[in-house]
């Protein structure tokens, strides 16, 4: 085990690009969406897709207090409707609803990183473990599907608070559930910005750069594989 963990009581993990990754290579552009959008999406330029994606993401961000899987599915129906309308993809209502249902309920959209069960099993013997994640209510099924839900005693999910990291309310909620001050906790995330938010509350930050886009220069401790934590 790395020395930075030895005097800590609780380890919090992000989920996306920390414990798992998207099967399609993108959290929102799922395999189902790409198959249904097909040539129409490919014909649009990168800038047009980026702009439409930002508009659709703004809708999600402004309506993030979502407490049921059914409400999540409806929200993603709106998300994919915005994309279709902005890009002129011509997706029917039935297609939009099927894409939204797949995004919400198809757990094959997620691929666990190698070795995460070994890491969590090992760390759970010496620490209490928790999750702090920007996500939606189906996260429960996601953690069950990748076989790691049982390791977490504390869960802070943005959809139940209506705010995203690095909002301090996310970290305050996690610390309150764990019953420890920040100085007793570690947070592992793929975003330096999120880690800065955690560090402001005294939580020890570790950058996970399993995703190459997260492999940036930082003063924080950086790892590329969670298995480094227990070597």
Topology:
Layout: E1 10-13, E2 20-22, H1 31-42, H2 46-62, H3 69-87, H4 93-105, E3 110-112, H5 116-123, E4 128-133, H6 139-145, E5 154-157, H7 158-161, H8 168-178, E6 185-189, H9 192-199, E7 204-208, E8 221-223
Parallel strand pairs: 1-4, 1-6, 4-5, 6-7, 7-8
Antiparallel strand pairs: 2-3
Helix pairs in contact: 2-3, 3-4
Structure characteristics:
single chain; about 230 residues; alpha/beta; Rossmann fold; 2 domains; six-stranded parallel sheet; about 45% helix
What does this structure look like?
By secondary structure, the chain is an alpha/beta fold. It folds into two domains: about 5-20 and about 115-230, 3-Layer(aba) Sandwich (Rossmann fold), CATH 3.40.50; about 30-110. Helix content is about 45%, strand content about 15%. The chain contains nine helices and eight strands. It has helices at about 30-40, 45-60, 70-85, 95-105, 115-125, 140-145, 160, 170-180, 190-200; strands at about 10-15, 20, 110, 130-135, 155, 185-190, 205-210, 220-225. The strands form two sheets. The protein has a six-stranded parallel beta sheet. A two-stranded antiparallel sheet has the order 2-3. Helix 9 (about 190-200) links the parallel strand 6 and strand 7 (about 205-210). The longest helix has 19 residues, at about 70-85. The radius of gyration is 18 Å and the shape is elongated. About 35% of the residues are buried. The mean pLDDT is about 95.
């Amino acid at each position: 085990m790395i020395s930075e963990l030895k005097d800590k009581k609780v380890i919090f993990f992000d989920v996306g690009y920390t414990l798992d990754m998207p099967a399609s290579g993108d959290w929102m552009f799922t395999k189902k969406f790409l198959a249904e959008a097909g040539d129409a999406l490919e014909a649009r330029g990168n800038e047009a897709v980026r702009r439409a994606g930002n508009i659709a993401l703004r809708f999600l961000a402004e309506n993030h207090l979502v407490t049921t899987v059914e409400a999540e599915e409806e929200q993603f129906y709106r998300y994919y409707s915005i994309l279709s309308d902005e890009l002129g993809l011509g997706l029917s209502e039935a297609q939009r609803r099927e894409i939204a249902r797949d995004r919400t309920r198809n757990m094959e959209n997620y691929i666990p990183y190698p070795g995460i069960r070994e890491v969590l099993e090992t760390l759970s013997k010496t620490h209490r473990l928790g999750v702090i994640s920007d996500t939606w209510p189906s996260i429960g099924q996601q953690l069950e599907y990748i076989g790691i839900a049982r390791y977490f005693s504390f869960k802070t999910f943005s959809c139940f608070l209506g705010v995203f990291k690095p909002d301090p309310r996310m970290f305050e909620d996690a610390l309150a559930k764990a019953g420890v001050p920040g100085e007793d906790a570690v947070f592992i995330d793929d975003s330096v910005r999120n880690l800065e938010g955690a560090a402001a509350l005294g939580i020890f930050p570790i950058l996970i750069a399993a995703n190459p886009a997260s492999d940036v220069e930082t003063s924080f401790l950086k790892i590329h594989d969670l298995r480094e934590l227990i070597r």
